[in-house]
Write a structure and sequence with these properties.
The chain is mainly α and 37 residues long. It is built from one helix and no strands. The protein is rod-shaped, with a radius of gyration of 16 Å. It is a single-pass membrane protein. Component of the cytochrome b6-f complex, which mediates electron transfer between photosystem II (PSII) and photosystem I (PSI), cyclic electron flow around PSI, and state transitions. Belongs to the PetM family. It is found in: Cellular thylakoid membrane; Membrane.
Length: 37
């Protein structure tokens, strides 16, 4: 059970920042295409 919790913690700590980074990049790309600030 401890191993499953450890794996879940690693997935959360890795997937969440990756998801935030991906969303930020998509917004930056879309904003750059529409208007350069």
């Amino acid at each position: 059970m401890g191993g499953e919790m450890f794996t879940a913690a690693i997935l959360c700590l890795t997937l969440i920042p990756i998801g935030i980074a991906m969303g930020f990049l998509l917004l930056k790309i879309q904003g750059g295409e529409e208007s350069e600030l």
